[in-house]
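Design a sequence for this backbone.
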């Protein structure tokens, strides 16, 4: 079976816990929250990855509680967004960063771009998900990175599904797989780390040998998740590749957010 790699999404503050900022904050408003659709308080800038999404209802509720206006700065995939935050840490572009996961955790902590915040909500978080003892990055969600496949393609072409990572180097799966660039994408980095865990760094067949074989089998490396899933994956978008590195929740999201029936 495919090795699943746990992703723990971490942020500088827990988004629903209050207006805590990474940089010195503007004066906290003293006026009580009102029922106005758009609060007149200060603007809270939140840097996120491009795939971040939040419902209008949840955003409106948070803005009323915070008595602030939220401005989202979508800044590329996780790696790109984090690089922007690091390069601008002397003059931060945002107050809050949302979207660092455990694959990029060490980079964010090493660059010391976040202020510690012991959110009251941490009492409800399992200890094994608290990856930063200093509470500079707080866990809010977790999930699995795995391979998604286009069921119809494999049925129509009478090709069996791959059962192991090594199977992906078989000529039967030539030009079928799209992955994300691990330098810029968190699921891409998670997949790379999974291959290191499976094949190791020493021995007769290492993860480097696997990637050489994968390249010979015409693996496609996209810059980010959205490009891989919506541009190259045959089930999720307009592409022609029936295998993609994505999340275990992607099929469920397809069903939930698609108006037509999904096979």
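Sequence:
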């Amino acid at each position: 079976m495919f090795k699943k790699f746990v992703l723990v999404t971490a942020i500088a503050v827990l988004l629903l816990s209050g207006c805590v900022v990474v940089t010195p904050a503007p004066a906290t408003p003293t006026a009580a929250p009102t029922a106005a659709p758009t609060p007149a308080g200060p603007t809270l800038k939140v840097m996120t990855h491009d795939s971040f999404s939040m419902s209008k209802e949840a955003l409106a509720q948070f803005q009323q509680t915070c008595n602030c206006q939220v401005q989202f700065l979508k800044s590329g995939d996780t790696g790109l967004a984090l690089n922007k935050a690091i390069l601008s840490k002397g003059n931060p572009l945002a107050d809050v960063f949302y979207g660092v996961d455990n694959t990029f955790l060490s980079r964010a902590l090493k660059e010391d771009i976040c202020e510690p915040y012991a959110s009251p909500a941490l009492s409800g978080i399992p200890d094994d998900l608290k990856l930063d003892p200093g509470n500079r990055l707080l866990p809010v969600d977790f999930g699995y990175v795995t391979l998604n496949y286009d069921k119809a393609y494999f049925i129509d072409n009478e090709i069996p599904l791959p059962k192991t990572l090594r199977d992906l180097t078989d000529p039967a799966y030539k030009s079928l797989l799209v992955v994300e660039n691990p330098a810029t994408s968190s699921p891409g980095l998670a997949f790379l780390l999974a291959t290191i865990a499976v094949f190791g760094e020493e021995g007769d067949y290492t993860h480097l040998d696997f990637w050489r074989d994968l390249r010979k089998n015409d693996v496609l490396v996209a810059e980010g998740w959205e490009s891989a899933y919506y541009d190259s994956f045959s089930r999720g978008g307009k592409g022609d590749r029936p295998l993609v590195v994505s999340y275990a929740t992607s099929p469920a999201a397809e069903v939930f957010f698609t108006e037509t029936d999904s096979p």
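Residues 150-257 form a domain with the D-Maltodextrin-Binding Protein; domain 2 fold (CATH 3.40.190.10).
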